[in-house]
Every structure is written in structure tokens, then in C-alpha cells.
Amino acid sequence: MKTMITAALFAVGLAGGALADPVLGVWKTEVDDGAYAHVKFAPCGPNFCGKIVRTFNAEGEYKSPNLGKTLFIDMTPDGNGKYSGSAWRPANGKIYKGSMTLKGNKLKAGGCVAGIICIKNTLTRIK
């Protein structure tokens, strides 16, 4: 009985750790092709995904066809604020092998296709 209780508490502790990951929350991207987005990071399985929840251009908030789409895909926490996975760039529709580094309220993201064509974007924490 004690073993089952200990195992249950351990499992809850692990889940709580995932829920408290510092990447969770809403982040603002840099401007790319005249627009930027608010991206919400949440758990997706054992990893983290970032979905577009709001979009903006020079005239203000607008309803982009990219709303609700996943921008950061299966980002695995590698430790020390580093994550690896994939990133989708709406401007060209390409998926890049990506990485992110969290430093305070800045999330530096980058990725490459075929190791040649690379992109970078720094996100700023909103909440």
C-alpha cells in the first residue's frame, strides 16, 4: 500500500514539474513578413508545442488564416533552458529542425532546413 501511494505521489510530482516548465505561457514573436503573433506554449504529450493564438500586422490585430496552427512542434526540454524539436514558418510553409534557448523573458528560437536555409526569431514573454 505504501509503495502504491509513493508511486502515485511521484507520478503527480513529475506531472507538476511539466506543468511548471518555464517555457509555458504566451510569447510575442518578432515581425516576419510584416506580421507578428502571440504564441501560447502548452504541453503536448511529454514535450511542448506553441500555437498561434493572436496575429497582428501594421494595422493592428487581424484574423490570420494561421490562427490555431502549431508554430513550435514537439519541443523537447534538453535542460538548462534549451529545447529541441521543429518549427513551422508561416511565410514560406516550411518546417525547420528547430531549437530554442530560454533566458529570462526572452526565448531565442532558430531552425534550419537541410542544414543550409536557416531562420531565427526571438520571442518575448507576454504572460
From TrEMBL:
The keyword Signal applies. This is Imidazoleglycerol-phosphate dehydratase. Residues 25-125 form the DUF2147 domain. Gene3D superfamilies: 2.40.128.520. Residues 1-20 form the signal peptide. The keyword Signal applies. Keywords: Signal. It comes from the Bacteria.
